[in-house]
Design a protein that fits this description.
The structure is a homotetramer of 397-residue chains. By secondary structure, chain A is of the alpha+beta class. Chain A folds into two domains: 2-159, Four Helix Bundle (Hemerythrin (Met), subunit A) (Up-down Bundle); 183-394, paralog of FGE (formylglycine-generating enzyme), CATH 3.90.1580. The first copy, chain A, has helices at residues 11-29, 48-67, 78-82, 106-126, 130-159, 225-233, 245-253, 291-300, 308-314; strands spanning 183-186, 189-193, 209-213, 216-219, 262-265, 268-273, 276-279, 323-330, 356-361, 376-378, 387-388, 392-394. In chain A, strand 5 (262-265) and strand 6 form a beta hairpin. The two termini of chain A are 41 Å apart. Chain A binds chain D through residues 85, 87-88, 190, 209-212, 214, 216, 240-241, 243-248, 291-292, 295, 304, 328-330, 332-333, 335-336, 345-346, 350-354, 356, 380, 394, and chain D through 85, 87-88, 190, 209-212, 214, 216, 240-241, 243-248, 291-292, 295, 304, 328-330, 332-333, 335-336, 345-346, 350-354, 356, 380, 394.
Chain lengths: 397, 397, 397, 397
């Protein structure tokens, strides 16, 4: 991690950024009922309450405990409750049990946030420690990741309620159209991949390195809902020859016949959005699609997904950031990747198997939390992110 | 079902009983946070919110819809949300999904209760229909069953929270001692079993019939915590020869080594109670024990569990009602058992396989909801009820 | 166990009976290919090779090791390989692994049988020990049980091969018709239940005792294939109201729509038999039916299954022995039941939960292995035995 | 696929190669008992009988049916029985059911092989069709793959028999030592990857293309048993920080504490080999290791696995072919990858997700079935192949 704000006279700016990010998390929760904070419908979804607590614990565990002289934990149990997956920092509740925790109540979680924020603010005014600032930036980026997960997890919770409740009127994050069309051609060459410079990045973006790319073409637009409906109407979900073998198993075992949140009502496709149930608009960019579906769709189009390198090289000339874009690349370490020591070393490296890289960012991504080198990753069957498809092809095609 | 209140001039009494039972459910919820109403930690536990809605739906579905002229449903979706297992009355959400429903919010459930109660009160004042009154009594008994489930389900939810939250101070339902000791001898004879008379009972108690019992002895007291600790200390949970084969599998697969809610802390047994974590008192009656454990304990004592018939015959001379008592009897229909037509026929009969009869009643049972002929039933591995052990033996022993 | 042959001068008779039962097991295997001895398609099926080894091990373990001076085990590993479920006599391979054991080869199993038989013959000629003789009789009855399991397990193995191989021409064990019809009325009275006298019985038949039976009627005939086809045609497998709740789950999860081994081919019902695939004959007695199906069928007929006591009391006047008949009784201990000490105590008692009693005997039961007090038992979902339905009703119906 | 034998005058050579490969499969089976041909202990293992039938079916389905005028199927059922995963060519039995098929018997499978071989021989003498020859070469390579699977599957079957049977005396395929040591340094450059030339290769090796590699070092030797024992003794299987997250779950759920087939007997490590149980030799190359273990071991050494590109570039200077070597590369398509049309298109492409590339070849690989561009692939938890570890590192380390 490289801090993006180093001079001592920027203390104020840092504190303001801290408070701003922290405040954003709470603003997101404004429309919630207390009831909405609790459930964990499936194991990969976390309750809103847990997101609020966990992001706060991150600052307490990694910063306040180490840098704030005489800091007293808000509650001794919270480390156990709000540690996500850091084996380095001790025991934690099983991930599947997050939805059982009615206590501490929501109000106490807000007290916890306030307590930590007050101590953080005090600490930030008094220190210029570079390591602390690096951890601060990491913690804020971490919270921003959870802000996006908050939205996608909440959509899952509300979207599986047969009443299709509205989170916020007019807050439909799927309602975007492409601004460009056609394909961009990129020449064969050696290119540089990975993050450099002073801004923040995660460890998995480091190890700036060279890759050789053959000539390729990459679409300027993302696949639309209308194109996916064509795929459905051409029996795309029923033709084994389009699918990866594990994708075909996934389709059949889960009876998948459309993107998540889609419902065929009286012959017309609808989708649940955070603004409630809406008709699917053909011209909007497709979202909530798994890697398996993305691969089958590309096969149906006689094209392919771009690799994450092809994506990164082309990105400066592309319009991106409204959907996470499945690449054709498995999530692996860059040549020079090294895990940081201690708990933060568990942030990324240990997940580098069986997952797929997504690039770009979505309409649910927090402001300022996107960059061209960002490597998001999920298992290939997940649909609950705002994920879409950009196609690529070899020049000869 | 046989109504216990028939004369027309008892309308007032009925209405008061209705309101009293309904009010009791809400009183039980007083100490809850909104958060506590939501979770369903495992599939056999229902969220408090669901209990409140489901019992209300029962009156709406079976009484108001049929007897109240021009009744308008409070909400069209509620039948789908709050039907438990009645296939006769249409679709319902999967049992495992009850914990995902944050909406309708808790407040709306209370509105629902109020709406239904107002209509019920009006209806009750205007009718003397015998069938309606029978359904009313069934509905109230149904709600009382859920009042007990509310307590045991809530104990499960709070008792699996690592913070061991208190529901109510001094509300420890496990804190009872035996008042008698020794064995009661019952002579060989033909006895009558089952319910008769005018009071309410469930269909599974009907078919009053004769059974022949050989001479036997039945304990006047229930097994205590201290005796169970002796069993533990004698390696009772580790000796295969004491256990039913499926019980032994259950012990090993679930790593069972004590009753549910028991924790060995610094060499001393503690148990979670609705009043928080407490040291186990040796002289108190044991609770939260499965049938498998009850059978193994009886084997260890060279005794056996009484059959449900032996229990019922002896019950007049026994002190009972503080623990559900596992009997040695599988849950089967009485000779003259017939299922009532329609949805209420699904109340009991369809569960008569693989389950075990419990007799008596527990300290969590609602007032007035016990009788000697009552047949409770659960699968043999369940521990989450206030269940205990009464021993029996053949006279020759 | 009570030996049925006690006088010392009956040594010859015993030896002959021993050799006759043992020989019968091998005769059953004559039509097999070596390949057929091996597989275990599902966990509750044992490979033919295992049956041959396990029954032999029983004699070695319980008789030769204890009664034959200087006996040397045929192979030290065989106790580990061929112990079924006796925890008392040490470790054993997991039940699910029986189908993996290609070695020892089939030939060696026959060598094992020969070795044990030679030593048994020698031992039987030299002893008059009453205990040994009791164990001998138990061992022979045990082997007869496995002879029946051999046939039903083999039918499962061959019957799930898409080629429907023939075990023996003309060996169709489902090809029997009823010889009587109508209902038999039994008067209300106290009756005696259980085994007495000198002949062999299992421990679960002991504890002769009295039961009171109300007047009832029991069918003289078993349900036929034709009646079951009527049930199918009346949507019997699709009407939830006919089924136990767990039965309904079983039907839906396993997509059950007919008895096991039935196939609808070009609109006509066929069934796999040990003589190959055959058209279903309407007048034959139904077989390969689960308890769940039996209960649903009885419900459809507005009747019920007889209890095991009703069955036993009526049995002298019934024609039985061609199908195992599901009773309405859960498998529970008789009032005076006591487990024998040691390993033979694991024979029956530890299975007395969640299972259902079947009475009678089937066309696959070995000669001489039936009696009116015999209590067979299986879990309610099993169909692979030659199991059928006898109906009963209350007199008032 | 590119045929390696094109001239018309090479018919004889082709026929001989066909017969030689086919004969090798049968030679491998010589030491088997009939019993050994049958079992399928877990779903990813196929019975020897199935390998013999499936490889034969491949020639019948893809060659004889299409190229042999008037060809009559040996048995109409065999396509159903012996199709592995080709959806294109119709229905097939479930993979998990392969071990239930005792019929057709082993002898009939050999008849099938003979029948197909005779027709193939006749066909090969009469044709010069290029497509047929390409399919022939594919079929022979396919059979060679199954020859290796035969050995690893058989090892699994026999190796999980508590008697540890010997397949062949002195046939220990784990008994190899390294011939070189130290690290090889490879310069930063653009390299060519993939297959070219006339020899046979699979479709996944095609799309010869350029990659840029940074400077790296790759070990000349494979990790030895002794080094793995050091890892065990340093608690390598117990330190979460060494493992991928899914690897750590795999270790704990399956209680993995050593490579497959290893047993600690009286404090000394032994391993099951096809020659029986043997002491582990420290200097031999490690085998039967999963990708998860390989990654944890590399982490423990502060090194990494080579990518498949690094491996291929270095391969000419390495001694390889005795263990399949886990690379750090997920199995993905090469830039120019295209699936062949029809069933052969299902050979490789549809498996390109969640699996890991292994390079090299093992002591169980059939003669002539290795090349530097060969891309083997398995899921990361599999241990049953003769898989080992070669380490790499960045030059700067």
């Amino acid at each position: 991690m490289i801090a993006d704000l180093t001079p001592a006279n920027k203390i104020l700016e840092k504190t303001e950024r801290y408070l701003s990010v922290r405040h954003y998390s709470e603003t997101q929760c404004k429309p919630l009922l207390i009831e909405d904070y609790i459930p964990q419908p499936v194991v990969f979804i976390s309750p809103p309450k847990w997101h609020l607590g966990h992001t706060t614990w991150f600052f307490e565990e990694f910063i306040l405990k180490n840098y704030y002289d005489g800091y007293r934990l808000f509650d001794d149990n919270f480390s156990f409750l709000f540690n996500s997956y850091y084996n380095t920092v001790g025991k934690r509740i099983m991930r599947a049990d997050r939805g059982n925790l009615t206590r501490p109540g929501v109000e106490k979680i807000y007290d916890y946030r306030k307590y930590v924020d007050e101590h953080m603010e005090k600490l930030l005014c008094e220190t210029e420690d570079e390591n602390l600032w690096n951890l601060l930036v990491l913690g804020l980026n971490h919270e921003q990741q959870h802000q996006e997960l908050f939205l996608t997890d909440l959509k899952y919770i509300l979207g599986h309620n047969p009443l299709f409740p509205v989170y916020r009127e007019n807050y439909d994050l799927t309602n975007q159209q492409n601004e460009s069309e056609g394909f961009l051609k990129i020449q064969e060459d050696i290119y540089e991949i990975g993050h450099s410079g002073k801004g923040f990045c995660y460890d998995n973006e480091l190890g700036k390195h060279k890759v050789f790319l053959h000539e390729y073409e990459i679409s300027k637009s993302l696949v639309t809902n209308g194109e996916l409906i064509d795929f459905i109407n051409d029996d795309g979900y029923k033709r084994f020859d389009l699918w990866l073998d594990e994708g075909w198993t996934w389709v059949n075992e889960n009876k998948i016949s459309a993107p998540r949140y889609w419902h065929l009502i009286d012959g017309r496709w609808h989708q649940y959005t955070l603004a409630g149930l809406k008709p699917v608009k053909n011209r909007n960019m497709l979202s909530h699609i798994s890697f398996y579906e993305a691969m089958a769709f590309a096969e149906w189009k006689n094209m392919r997904l771009p690799t994450e390198f092809e994506w990164e090289v082309a990105s400066a000339a592309l319009d991106w950031g409204k959907r996470w874009e499945w690449t054709g690349s498995a999530y692996s370490p860059y040549p020079g990747f090294t895990k940081p020591p201690g708990a933060v070393g568990e942030y990324n490296g240990k997940f580098m198997v069986k997952q797929i890289v997504l690039r770009g960012g979505s309409s649910a991504t927090s402001p300022g939390h996107s960059r061209a080198t960002y490597r998001n990753f999920f298992h290939p069957h997940f649909q609950w992110q705002y994920s879409g498809i950009r196609l690529a092809k070899n020049h000869s095609l």
